[in-house]
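2024-03-11 09:14:02 DEBUG pipeline.ingest accepted 1 chain
2024-03-11 09:14:02 DEBUG pipeline.ingest length=168
2024-03-11 09:14:03 DEBUG pipeline.predict start
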Amino acid sequence: MTTRDQRLAQAAQALDCPMDVEIAPGGSYRPVVRDERMLYVSGQLPRLNGAMASLGPVAPASATPAAGTATLEQARRAARVSALRSLMLVQRTLGSLEPVQRICRMTVYVHCTSDFTQHSEVADGASELLVEVLGDIGLPARSAIGVAQLPKNASVEVELTASAHFAL
């Protein structure tokens, strides 16, 4: 097991996510599409042990907590889980994270209330996990976008694009 793969396993353990967890598509799409040296990972929800790590819209800390809303910290953790699942799919596609040259792009969708403005802080949870596992090549160009709803009422969804060095 390579150092990157070991760090992925450590991150999975820290988030209580088994490495052999099934990551199956929830519809008619491929979880990962490989086109030459590029890997396009479909949006990953923060599923842990069969349940969402965070549900409902993320609300600002200044707001009175409403039932069914998530906090910034819950959303950051959910972003970490979604990024972890994305890397697990990349690892399964390549057999190891060693061929990864760079995480090129990441989009983090944040299901949030209309007054929430800390989208980038939520996305930092995902970015930090990518850097923990891959080092500097894990720091992508990224967008953090607030949305009115996500599938299954998840608080966060992460999609990413990676490049890898392998024989064509």
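2024-03-11 09:14:41 DEBUG pipeline.report Helices lie at 3-14, 72-94, 119-134.
2024-03-11 09:14:41 DEBUG pipeline.predict end
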